[in-house]
Design a protein that fits this description.
The chain is mostly helical and about 220 residues long. About 75% of the residues lie in helices and about 0% in strands.
């Protein structure tokens, strides 16, 4: 990860704490806490709002950094990859839980306004699905922007569940992720529809009825 990116993440994470203390915190106070100059912050961010929003964007960058260090990641199943991104984000959100609960809906969960986080999240999903060779041929048609948007909305639902989760270390939220990811794998790895198509194709080309019909048509053409 680039040095500049690391500094931006450091600034954004520090800003979440300042926001909890005072929602109208100044760039000067943030710079003082980080022992840097306000100019260094303004060189990277135009305003306070952009710093806070970058907190969410940077969670995807950190997730990508994490998976780049996993040697066996390319061999993960669909369930394992989905589990990885969901739990990575939940773990990171847990570290700044109060900030996330206060700002998530406005900054990334709005139904009428898209965000950079949404774009990055969906792009990560697209890579997960399109790189998985075990997905059934019949299920590949489902891999489109509607699928990624549907999963994004379900992620919002997970955050709402997590918000109200009173279990130890949010174990219920983790269990929900596991079950949801396992279900997605069952759906997308299922070969039932593929086998149905194969059966239909076989019957079409090998059925006695089809053969008889073909012979009858040939005979009529000969008579003509």
């Amino acid at each position: 990860m680039k040095k500049e990116t690391k500094l931006k993440i450091k600034i954004a994470e520090a800003a979440t704490g300042r926001y909890i203390e005072n929602r109208r915190f100044t760039i000067q106070s943030l710079a003082k806490e980080l022992e840097i100059t306000p100019k260094q912050i303004f060189d990277l961010f135009p305003n306070r709002s952009s710093i806070l929003r970058y907190y969410y964007d940077s969670r995807i960058l950190i997730y990508r950094e994490q998976i780049s260090s996993i040697k066996e990641y390319s061999t993960f199943t669909l369930s394992e990859k989905l589990n990885n991104i969901f739990l990575s984000l939940l773990d990171q959100f847990s570290e700044h839980r109060e900030f996330v609960l206060l700002t998530y809906r406005d900054m990334v969960g709005s139904p009428v306004r898209s965000s950079a986080f949404e774009k990055l999240f969906k792009e990560a999903l697209r890579e997960i699905f399109q790189s998985d060779e075990q997905i059934a041929t019949s299920a590949k048609i489902l891999q489109n922007r509607f699928l990624y948007h549907a999963i994004y909305l379900q992620f919002h639902g997970l955050i709402l569940f997590w918000k109200n989760d009173e279990s130890h270390l949010y174990e219920n939220s983790m269990a929900l992720v596991d079950k949801w990811c396992a279900l997605q794998e069952e759906i997308f790895y299922s070969k039932i529809v593929d086998k149905g198509f194969d059966l239909g194709k076989f019957l079409y080309y090998n059925s006695p009825i089809n053969f008889t019909t073909s012979c009858a048509l040939t005979a009529k053409r000969s008579e003509a």
